[in-house]
C-alpha cells in the first residue's frame, strides 16, 4: 500500500537541503534580556519584547488581580456574552493613546488584519498593497475576495502608477501598508502614501505592529511619528510586541470601527481575549502614558548596537528601527551562524530568517533590540556576533 504521506518526507528533505527547515526551540523562562532556551541560559536577541514589558511586575500584578475578579476566561465571543467592562476600558484607552475616535480589541494582530480587511473590501473592490507586507495582510487580502494589486516596496511613484491605472475600474479601493517592515526594519513613507490616497479617494490602512511602543511620541506609533493622528482610516496594531502581552487592535474613525464590529469574523466567531491579558494591556498603556523612559532607552540601545555591528563590519541592511538584520544571503549560512551564536559561551539567541519569510538569497539573522538590555548585555552580544562572524568568514 502506498504511503499517503511520503510527499511530506520528500518536502522535509528538500527543506533540509536548502537550509530552510525551521527548528523550533523551547523556552524555559520568562521573556527577558536573558532566557533559558532548550535548557541553556542565553542572551536574548530574538523576541519582540521592545520595551521589556513581557515580564514586568506591574503587568503581572494586573493580570493576577484580573483573574481573581473576572476568572480565567470569558467563555463567549464578544458579540454574544464575552465583552467585559475591561475590554471596553482598554478600547477607550487605546483610542485616546493613539489619538483616534474608537478602537476594537481582538485576539491578535494577525486576527486584526483578517478581521478588518474583508470587512472593508470584497468582490468588485481593489486592494493596493506593498510587495513586502506581512503574511497576515496577504492572508486578509485573499480572504476578502477583492482584486489585489501589488506596488513595489515603499515606492510611492509605483503606488501612484498602480492606483492611477486601476482605481476607476472598481467599486471601492483600499491601500494597505506595514508601518515598520518586520524583516528589514525600514519604515513606510506614510505621509506621501496618505497624500496620494487622499487625491484618488482611496481608503487607507496601516499595520503598525512593529511601530507601536517604538515610534512616535512615547511609543504612539508610526501615524503619530508622521503627525497623521486621526487621519488614517484604519490603524492595525498588536499588543504582543512592545506592549508585552497579547491581542490586536483595530483603530480609527468611529464609523469605520463600528462597521468592523458588525462584520469582522474573528471578532464575531472566536472567543474574547481573557481578562488577565486585557488587564495587563491596560497596565502597559498606563506605563507608556506615564513616562517615555523605556522608549528612550530602546532607541539609545538601538543606536549603540547598530553602530557596534557596523564597526565590526556587518551589513545591517536598510533598517532605521530596533529591528537589526544581519544580512548573510545564504540560508544554510544563516542557520549555521545562528547555531554558532547559540553554542557560544555565553550563548546568544538569534534565529535565522530565510525563504519564504524573506526572498531567496536574502537570508539573515534578525537581532531584536530591547529596552531590557543593559549596556553590558549589548557589549556581550557584539563580542559574540563578531567572534562567530570571523569564524565563518562573514567579516574580516
TrEMBL record:
Molecular function via GO: ligase activity; pyridoxal phosphate binding; transferase activity
SUPFAM superfamilies: PLP-dependent transferases
PROSITE patterns on file: AA_TRANSFER_CLASS_2
Cofactor(s) it depends on: pyridoxal 5'-phosphate
Domain of life: Bacteria
Domain Aminotransferase class I/classII large: 40-384
Family matches, as InterPro entries: Aminotrans_II_pyridoxalP_BS (IPR001917), Aminotransferase_I/II_large (IPR004839), AON_synthase_class-II (IPR050087), AONS_Archaea/Firmicutes (IPR010962), PyrdxlP-dep_Trfase (IPR015424), PyrdxlP-dep_Trfase_major (IPR015421), PyrdxlP-dep_Trfase_small (IPR015422)
CDD domains: KBL_like (cd06454)
Keywords recorded for this protein, A-Z: Ligase, Pyridoxal phosphate, Transferase
Family annotation (Pfam families): Aminotran_1_2
Family: Belongs to the class-II pyridoxal-phosphate-dependent aminotransferase family.
Subunit relationships: Homodimer.
Protein name according to UniProt: 2-amino-3-ketobutyrate CoA ligase
Amino acid at each position: 500500500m502506498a504511503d499517503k504521506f511520503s510527499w511530506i518526507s520528500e518536502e522535509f528533505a528538500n527543506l533540509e537541503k536548502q537550509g530552510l527547515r525551521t527548528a523550533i526551540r523551547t523556552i524555559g523562562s520568562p521573556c527577558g534580556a536573558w532566557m533559558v532556551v532548550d535548557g541553556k541560559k542565553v542572551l536574548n536577541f530574538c523576541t519582540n519584547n521592545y520595551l521589556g514589558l513581557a515580564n514586568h511586575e506591574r503587568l503581572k500584578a494586573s493580570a493576577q488581580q484580573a483573574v481573581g475578579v473576572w476568572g480565567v476566561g470569558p467563555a463567549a465571543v464578544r458579540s454574544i456574552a464575552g465583552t467585559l467592562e475591561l475590554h471596553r476600558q482598554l478600547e477607550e484607552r487605546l483610542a485616546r493613546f493613539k489619538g483616534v475616535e474608537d478602537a476594537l480589541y481582538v485576539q491578535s494582530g494577525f486576527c486584526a488584519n483578517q478581521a478588518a480587511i474583508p470587512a472593508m473590501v470584497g468582490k468588485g473592490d481593489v486592494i493596493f498593497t506593498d510587495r513586502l507586507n506581512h503574511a497576515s495582510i496577504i492572508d486578509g487580502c485573499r480572504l476578502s475576495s477583492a482584486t489585489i494589486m501589488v506596488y513595489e516596496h515603499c515606492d510611492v511613484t509605483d503606488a501612484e502608477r498602480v492606483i492611477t491605472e486601476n482605481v476607476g475600474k472598481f467599486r471601492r479601493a483600499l491601500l494597505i501598508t506595514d508601518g515598520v517592515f518586520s524583516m528589514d526594519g525600514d519604515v513606510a513613507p506614510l505621509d506621501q502614501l496618505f497624500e496620494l490616497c487622499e487625491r484618488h479617494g482611496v481608503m487607507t490602512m496601516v499595520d503598525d505592529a512593529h511601530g507601536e511602543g517604538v515610534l512616535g511620541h512615547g511609543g504612539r506609533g508610526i501615524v503619530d511619528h508622521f503627525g497623521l493622528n486621526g487621519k488614517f482610516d484604519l490603524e492595525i496594531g498588536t499588543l504582543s510586541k512592545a506592549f508585552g502581552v497579547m491581542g490586536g487592535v483595530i483603530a480609527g474613525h468611529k464609523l469605520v470601527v463600528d462597521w468592523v464590529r458588525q462584520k469582522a469574523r474573528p471578532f464575531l466567531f472566536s472567543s474574547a481575549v481573557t481578562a488577565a491579558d486585557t488587564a495587563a494591556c491596560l497596565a502597559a498603556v498606563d506605563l507608556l502614558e506615564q513616562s517615555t523612559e523605556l522608549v528612550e532607552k530602546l532607541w539609545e540601545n538601538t543606536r549603540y548596537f547598530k553602530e557596534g555591528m557596523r564597526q565590526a563590519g556587518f551589513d545591517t541592511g536598510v533598517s532605521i528601527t530596533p529591528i537589526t538584520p544581519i544580512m548573510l544571503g545564504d540560508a544554510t549560512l544563516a542557520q549555521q551562524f545562528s547555531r554558532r551564536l547559540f553554542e557560544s559561551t555565553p550563548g546568544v539567541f538569534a534565529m535565522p530568517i530565510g525563504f519564504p519569510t524573506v526572498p531567496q538569497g536574502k537570508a539573515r539573522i534578525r537581532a531584536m533590540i530591547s529596552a531590557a538590555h543593559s549596556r553590558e548585555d549589548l557589549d556581550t552580544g557584539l563580542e559574540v556576533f563578531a567572534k562567530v562572524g570571523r569564524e565563518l568568514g562573514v567579516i574580516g
